[in-house]
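User: Can you recover a sequence for this backbone? Please restate the input before giving your answer.

Assistant: Of course. Working from this structure:
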């Protein structure tokens, strides 16, 4: 991984084609929420399947917690759709069949020249694509469990949600006024 891709840094705002053949930017998919970003080997990898099956089971909690999730693999669009369907995922999958991210982040998995995938990483991102945590998943046990993600996302949410504790001074007054400190943070409801 490039040396500048570390906790506290901003992850690049890549634009790729999603499973519906629509071009999407990571920042657009993230919006104002935390995000789990999975850089995956792809449909052929049983470790990726297992990780994504666990995430699909965990997804209802991700969805209600105002957290986004995105998977990027080096699969083409057809394989991307097959991967997404095979694991029952409800989130966006992006195709990087041109290996733009693999090359830019210097994460070519040189031990598999046949598939030429990315080294699998899972990143937990704060709003603004700010890196909170990076998991190297070359070996399966390096990948975060749903409980690891829960702990990370709790810490991120406490950090970035000014309305985390509704008893905090000034929140009630803000609610009765401009609502700048309440989700969706200054946007009209």
């Amino acid at each position: 991984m490039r040396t500048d891709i570390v906790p506290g840094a901003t992850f690049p705002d890549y634009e790729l084609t999603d499973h519906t053949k629509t071009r999407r930017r990571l920042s657009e998919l993230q919006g104002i929420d935390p995000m789990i970003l999975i850089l995956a080997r792809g449909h052929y990898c049983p470790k990726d399947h297992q990780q994504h099956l666990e995430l699909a089971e965990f997804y209802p909690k991700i969805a209600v917690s105002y957290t986004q999730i995105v998977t990027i693999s080096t699969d083409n669009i057809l394989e991307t759709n097959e991967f997404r369907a095979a694991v029952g995922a409800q989130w966006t999958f992006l195709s990087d069949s041109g290996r733009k991210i693999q090359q830019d982040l210097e994460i070519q998995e040189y031990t598999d020249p046949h598939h030429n995938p990315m080294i699998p990483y899972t990143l937990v991102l704060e709003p603004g694509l700010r890196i909170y945590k990076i998991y190297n998943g070359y070996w399966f046990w390096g990948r975060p469990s749903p409980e690891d993600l829960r702990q990370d996302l709790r810490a991120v949410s406490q950090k970035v949600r000014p309305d985390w504790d509704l008893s905090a001074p000034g929140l009630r007054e803000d609610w009765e006024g401009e609502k700048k400190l309440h989700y969706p943070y200054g946007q009209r409801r």
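That completes the design. The longest strand covers residues 130-136.
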